[in-house]
């Protein structure tokens, strides 16, 4: 049976076909690329990680430990009296609180570009802070003494941020696998930094042995081993172990060093892949 459509309806159907057929053909030809995971040439990656130091050392840390040990030795030998707070006597044979330099918190953000399928160039911003707790040396007026005061050790521990810095680095990462969900790598970095540190001189100032905060600058080197795991082409998790050495200079000292190593965990994003798949 043949259906005769009115001229107007035939015209509407014809216009619809003219508009829609090219659209269907274009969409039939558009094929999205296969998802590519991991590191590759042209990828643009941002990683955000953080953690704690497992090791902290160097001449700056050792100097603070030696200073604390010296005060503790003088207390144990009776060379210097121990007070609880101010003039309140500290009970004899009571141990002093433990001196310690605590693990520091670290934060890191880096931007990396794939120069080749295995080599990446990056810039980074890093922070670290290290806390300490130790005995403090004070003085109190005493007219019976030739110099007019007596020095003592305060039993209540002094807690403070011993060191913190902000460093800006550049470096290279070598990625052992390319275009793989697992992305193990090794990285080398050099950096410049500015820091603040507590630096005790042991010099009396107005009946107080001050713990001044001294600012300064420095240079650093860093080596890291890590792996990224890409859950999607755009996003993954990052795990890294690292070691770092820094050479410091301030108005309080000509040169000191600080070393630290630790473990960090965080996330990685591939901006080049966002919206592509």
UniProtKB/TrEMBL annotation:
Top-level lineage group: Bacteria
Classification via InterPro entries: OMP/PagP_B-barrel
What name does the UniProt record give this protein? Outer membrane protein beta-barrel domain-containing protein
Supply the source organism for this entry. Answer: Leptospira jelokensis
